[in-house]
Structure formats: structure tokens, C-alpha cells
Amino acid sequence: MSGKETRYTLWYEETDGQDFNHVGKKNANLGEMIKAGIRVSPGFSITIYANDRFITDTGIKEKIEAYLKELGPVTFETTKKASEYSIDLIESASIPAEIEEDILSNYNKLCQLAGTANVPVAVRSSGAISMPGQMETYLNIRGEKDLIAYVKKCWSSAYNVEAIMYRANKGTGFLFNIGVGIPKMVNSRVSGIIFTINPLNGDPSKISIDASYGLGEAVVSGLVTPDTFLVDKITFDPVKTTMGSKEVRCVYRDNGSDIIQADVPADMRQRLCVTPEEVRELCRLGKLIEDYYGKAYDIEFGIDADLAFPGNIIILQVRPESVWSKKEVTARTEKKKDPMERILGQLLTGVKLK
Amino acid sequence: MAGTTFMDPHDVPAIPGTQGWEKMYPYQYQFSKEDPERGAFESSQIWYYDGLHYPEPHYPFDLIWDEAWSLALSQYNTRHFIIPPALGIDHRIVNGYVYITPVGIPDQEVVAKRVPHFLERAGYYYQNWDKLYENWKKKVTALIGELDALNFTELPEMEDISIVTEGVGKGCGFDLLKKYDDLINMGLLNWQYHFEFLNLGYAAYVTFINTTNQIFPGIPMSTLTKMVSGIDVVMYKPDSELIRLARLAIDTGLEEMFMRPLNASGLTQELEKSPAGKTWLAEMEKARYPWFYISTGTGWYHHHISWNDNLDIPFDAIRMHIRSIREGKEVGRPTDKLVQERDRIVGEYRKLIKTDDDREAFEQALAVARTVFPYVEDHLFYIEHWFHSIFWGKVRQIGRILQKEGFIEDVEDIWFLKRDEVKQALWDYCTAWATGVKARGPSYWPKEISWRKGVYDKFKNWAPPPALGIPPDVVTEPFTIVLWGVTTDVLGEWLKGGGDGEGQQMEFKGSPGSSGLVEGRARVLKNVSELADLKEGEILVATTTSPSWAPAFVKIAGAVTDVGGPMCHAAIVCREYGLPTVVGTGKATHIIKTGDLIRIDGDSGVVTILEKA
């Protein structure tokens, strides 16, 4: 026993995949990625135990159980009432001081790491069982007050009507404690996509990187022509680099979580948005992810303006490459009986000029 | 490139005030329509300016190496190894600049008939490569020994008595003329040896490049070099000798002496005062022969002097190494790491090959490339550096005789004479000496040389068009592919380029030498003695770089050169140091000024001036 079961918070790097019952699956996965050397945005989990202590110590648990008895059999109507009752209780209660201090102390460490007060974070629900999309995630939460408010909102989101129904259908109980993830929002100076192959011809000896200023939106949705880097996967030597026009970047609106477009100044457009060291680090991470999962991957990344290299290179999302990995592989060279025949073949072919 | 043609080689305008320039070079180097058949051939070929070897117009004497390789390269393709689809490379000269063209064999029946001969002859060399190469080193080293022993002195007032008493029966004048012929013949023989392996080396290398490119499209040249690169490479030996001497200076307490602002002779005098200093000097003497015969350029021009010609250069380099060692920097080539890295790269690439056919192709091509690569890398030291450096010195001995006799005003004027004209001048000198009369040379050559210098300066200010004539559909000549890198892209760039070498050109193109993109302040160095001016992080801009510049590579962020192709040694060195490099721009040292902010793209070969100093 590691004592994790009585912790209110755990930094991502303190956990691994086995800890899903302490921090929820999403959070435990992040810990697992860090173990593998894959850099994710720094942050911590608020444990399921903290959620349990909150509803127990504040008396919420008892009140809900009593209210449920009052409501009687489960119908849509009663579920809605139970949901409203629970959410209201959770959001209006105070978090026990011990837990709140722990959360805020970690938050302040994140602020220090980013070198800024009130660093924006995400507040992400993370259940110990998969409940895709049933609970809430909040982006761009700034400052202690909002953080505490949104942690409670996140906890209460386990009592959305849909979440309650979902659990009821699965035969799980009404009360449901979840983990909450508090990662630093990636303040993406640059973001983009890494393919661990050449996506144009399936060549597995290359890594391809598209990168542009601001949030990933601009590259993913094709709003801009990004800088592109084709790199030798084995030596990390650049093969082909092209400079994109990068006219606009996507950024979060000040004090909001919606995305707006802004023009990129001319001098920034006329230079590459990532340094050679950053390209190498992106390649290293891409190769690491490919090796870890044992196949070609498509990876979203951000480069965080608040953090120092190489800690600023953050992996946002990974998924297996889906086009070339499905194609049948055929030989690309002609068969020759010996090296002399091969040299002869080359000499006779020559290099076409027209 | 359908429909692409360049200016007809017969239509290149003459430069005003240079009329009669043709006599500075052999007559067969001229484009001419006198013979309609030869004229039609000239018009139908692609002729490209050999900027790779010749960033400057030709001095009449220096053309010896062009003629030498014209004979040697071509004969090995055409007559020795019977390369099936390729004959030799033909040469011309326009306004002082050499243009060359690969000559193919259009008739497929002829090509087919050449195939069995090629397989037999080239096969013999590939199979016996290492044994033949060992023998080659012996031949070349013996030839260099012979060259070194050759010395040119003035003719005596009276023949030595022994000539009479020993019944020698011949005179010093005859000997001088014969020795001159010997010198020239040694030079030409040296170039016969140069190509004994090189054509086959390039054929194997181009096979490796194209096979690996089929399997891994766009695999960088730097990766290929790392896969085949030798570890005990002769070209790196001069620099490793300097490092040895730098460490010796530190170990024997001499380093402070090296930090003093003394030139080579001042420092030598100081060193001679102490036992440790004497020991050090003795070690340096050992290193000098042959390793200080490394040229500060490519060795192609007489003014590419060697370290032995100016000891300030190696002394400065030793000083830089001492500083780097004291600062705890890694100096020289980490050979253990390079071996590990080579094995890792090849191992990882092997794992990525997905079919048996591709695996077999890769292994075949890699094995042959590794066989030939030591020669491809090392021959440069033996021929262009060691032999040439001594050779230029011998010609200067003759220059001193001619200067003393008033044939030329300055020793360095000798380069304005063709090699046959030097022979004529020596005849003039010897017969006048024999007869006891005044030679005509002193009244003939100074005037002629003065005119030639004027013509040469006009050549220098002329921008040679990159290509003339009509490109063929396919190039099969291995050197044209690997060394000069003639491709559709390159032709396209040539077509864009052309006339205007002048003015505020902010972007131009060379060949990708070593991949990577870098921005920085330029430092234009005209020769190696200015290396001390280099600051950390600057981009080196030079006519060419050679291994004698190695101490600079720990400091710079990248390099741009006027001369060189992807396989030239400068590019190989820069790839090893991982420096983004563009080679063969033809004009970087003229366009870029020290302090300019420039960007170089070692992948596309583009050099951009972002901000003038």
C-alpha cells in the first residue's frame, strides 16, 4: 500500500495505469504516458477519495440518501429531481478546508511552474469506469476561486440526468465519486500534428510535422498553410523543410474559453515557427510514442509559451495512423541476381531529365 | 524539362577587350563551327559550367588538371571499363570558364554489346577492390616520392668536372628540359591513378543512392554518408595530428606560449629555447610530412596553398584547438561514437524494410558502397592535396629561375603561361645558356603576361551562364549524376539563373550540402588564415572549405561555399559536423558581406540575405 488511497491529490507523475481506482481512468492514463516518457501538460488529479470525503464530511451523502428514499422508484421525473437536488447540494457546499488547501497548494505550484499568477487550467472529470461524454470538462479556469467552484461543478456533473440514467442502466449505484484532473491549459505558442511516417507515401523512415502559431485548430481544420518538416526518423536529419504562410492563429479569447482568430504579424510569418531543437524534440517524442504503442501514430502537440524547453513540448492527443497501416506492402526495388547486375541496371537506367 | 534549351554555345558573346584570349588555352577547347559535324555535335549537347571545381576563370597553367582529368575520367568510362551507356565527358572553355558535357551512346545495340565487357572488367575491379586499392596506395606514394625528389635549379656557369671525368655525355640544359617533362608526366600519371577507381566508385555509390531512395524516398544524403562512411578516414588525419600537437603542448606546459600573439616563425624561435619546445617541434616535423600537405582549398588552383606553405595556418588551428580543449569542448572526430552511430542507423533502417526483395537490394547496394567508399573519400588527400601541394611548389621553383632570368617579373606570373609555353620558355633559356647569348623571353613574356592579366581580370568580372546547349532526355554518366548532381531541378535553376551575377541579389541557390535550416550573421572568409576572426554561431561563407578548416566547425552554425557538390569533401565534412550547408553557389563570397543576416536551407540549397549589414 502506497498511501495513495488516503491522498486528496496526486500529481500525474505519481500515478500510473493501475491507479484508475484512485484518480479515474483518464488521469491514470496520463500518468501512464508520463511513465513512458510522453510529455503531457503538467497537472494533478483530485482523487476519488477526496470526492468521497467531501460528500461524507459535508453531510451531502446522508442528505442525498435520505432524499432518494423520499422520492421512491426511479422514473424520469424522479431522476430529474434527484439530479437537481444533488447538484444544488454539491455546488453550494464548502469543500473541507484540508482538501481545499491541498488543491490550492498544488494549483499554486502549477502557477509557479508556469511563472504566472492565476494560470489557466482545465478541470476534467475522470471516472474509474468509462462513461464517455457523460460528465463535464471545463476549459480555461483561472484563479483559486473559480477553480474551487469548477471542481464542485465537475463533481456535480456526475449527477447530470444523463449520467444518472447511464449508471442506472449499468446497474451502478446512484452515488458516484469521480476523480478530477487539473492540467495546466497548454498556452500554445505553436501547435501541430506529428505523423510517425511520411503520410504522402507511407515511408516508415520519416517523421512528418506540420506546425503553425496558436492553438491546434488552425492546423487541424486547414485554416493556414503550416510550416512542414519531413525528418529522417533514424537520424533526425531534416529531409525537407517548407515555410508555410501561417496568416492567422487561433487563440482563446481573453478570460473566456471560446476560440477566436487573430492575424499573425508579418515577421513571424516569414520565419519558421519552431526551432531546430524543438523539431528534434518533437521527433523524439513521436518516435517514443510509436515505439510505445508498436505502430505508426498520428499525434497532436502544443508548444507551451509558459514553459521552458524541452518541458514546453506537450502531447495533446494520440491516435493510430489509419491509412497506410492498412495497405498491403510490396517491394519497391527490382530483383537482381547480384550486385554487378544491380550496378549495371542503375547505369543503364540513368537519371531522366525530361 | 521538355523544350528546355540554353544558349547555343557558339553564340556566347565575346568580352570586349579580350580578343585573342583563345591562345591562352589549348585550341581543342574552343567551340567552333569550322567542322560542321563537330559544330552540330556541340550545338546538340548540354554543356554546363564546371563551377564545382572552378569558381574562378582558368589560369593557363592550371588547365593542366582539367586536361589531365579530361583524359583520365573519359578513358576509364570509354576504353577501360566499357561503361555500357556512357562515353566520356567532353571539355570546352568559354571566356576562361570550363564547360563540360557527358557523352552518351544513343544506339542501344552498341550499348548491349558493351555490357559483357563491362561485367568482366568492372567485375574484376569490384571483386579485387581491396587488393587493387592497396597496390594503388603503393603506386601513388612511390610517385609522390619521385616528385618530391625532383628539384629545379639554375643552370651553372660551367658544367661540373664530374660530367667530363665520368663520361656522362649530357648537359644540365638537357636535364632541366627533361626534368620539366618528367614533372608534367608525373602530374598526368597522378591523374591516371586518380580515376583508376573513381568511376566504378561513383557507379556503385549512385546505385546505393538510388536503391535506398527507392525503398525510403528522399533519404537524406547525410544518412547515406553515415551508413557507408569509413572510420579511419585519411582526410581527417591532418586535423587529428593538430589535436595531438595541441594536447602535447598542454601536457608539456607549452600552452601559455601558444596563447601569445606570435606568428609561426616567432613561436618556433621561442619553442627552440626549451627542451619541451624542441620535443614539440620535432613532433610537428613528423606530422608535417605528409599531413601538412593538406591544401587550404580544393587543391585545384595554384593559389590553394598547403599548411606546409604557410605554417601560420596550422599554428593558428593548434591555438584554436588548445582553447577548445581548455574550455572542455569535444575536439576532433569521436570515432567510437561514429561506429556506434553507423551501426545503429543501419540497424534501424534494416528493421524498417518490409519485403525480402527490398532487404536483398539494400544489403547488396550497401555492401558495394562500403567497399568503394574509402577510396572515394581518401583519394582526395593523395591526389588533390598531397601530390598537388608538392607539385605547385616544384612549378614555383621553375618560376624562380624564370624570374631570375627576367622571363617573368614575379614568380606567380608563371601561371599565366600554358604548360607547353613554360617548356618553350625553358628551351629559350637553355639554348641561350648553351650558346652564350641573350634569350628572347625577357622581351617577349612580360608584355604577353601583362596583356593576359588584363584579359583574366575581365574574365573574372564575367558571370558564366550555368549551361549552354540542349539537355538530353536521360543522363547515364555516373559523375554527372553523383558529383555534379545534374537533375531536372538543377536544370530548372540554371534556366532561371544566368546573366546577372551582380547587384543586390537577395536570394540565390547552390546545392544542398548538409541538411538543416539556420539563420545567423555571415562571416566571409577569403582564406584560412582569417579563421581566427570567426565568432561563435556565425555562418561561414567561403570559396570552399576543406578539412584544414576543421577547427572552425565547432564554432559555426552553418556554411555556404562558392564551390562544391553534394559529394565534395566540404559537404561530407559539414554533414559529419551536422552543420546546415549549401555548397556550389558560385558567388556567395561576392554577394554576401560579413555581418549580413542570412538564412541557409541545406535541404533546398537556397541562401537568403535577410538583412544587409
Tell me about this structure.
Chain A folds into two domains: 4-183, 2-Layer Sandwich (Dna Ligase, domain 1), CATH 3.30.1490; 188-326, ATP-grasp fold, B domain (D-amino Acid Aminotransferase, Chain A, domain 1), CATH 3.30.470.20. Helices cover 37% and strands 22% of the residues of chain A. Chain A has helices at residues 20-23, 25-35, 48-57, 60-71, 76-92, 97-114, 144-156, 161-170, 217-220, 266-269, 276-293, 339-349; strands spanning 9-11, 43-46, 121-126, 137-141, 179-183, 188-195, 206-213, 227-232, 238-242, 248-252, 259-263, 297-304, 313-320, 351-352. The longest helix of chain A has 18 residues, at 97-114. In chain A, 44% of the residues are buried. Chain B is globular, with a radius of gyration of 25 Å. Chain B has helices spanning 36-44, 63-80, 108-127, 129-149, 161-165, 172-194, 198-215, 221-228, 237-251, 255-259, 264-271, 275-291, 312-326, 335-352, 356-404, 419-435, 441-460, 478-482, 488-496, 569-577, 588-591, and strands at 46-49, 86-94, 97-104, 467-469, 474-475, 507-509, 511-514, 517-525, 539-542, 558-561, 581-583, 597-601, 606-611. In chain B, a hairpin with a 4-residue loop joins strand 12 (597-601) and strand 13. Among the domains of chain B are: 9-123 and 460-492, no CATH class; 234-288 and 301-330, no CATH class; 504-611, Phosphohistidine domain (Glucose Oxidase, domain 1, 3-Layer(bba) Sandwich). Chain B has 613 residues and is of the alpha+beta class. The chains are: A alpha+beta (354), B alpha+beta (613). At the A-B interface, strand 9, helix 12 and strand 14 of A face helix 3, helix 7, helix 8, helix 14 and helix 15 of B. Strand 14 (351-352) of chain A pairs antiparallel with strand 5 (474-475) of chain B.
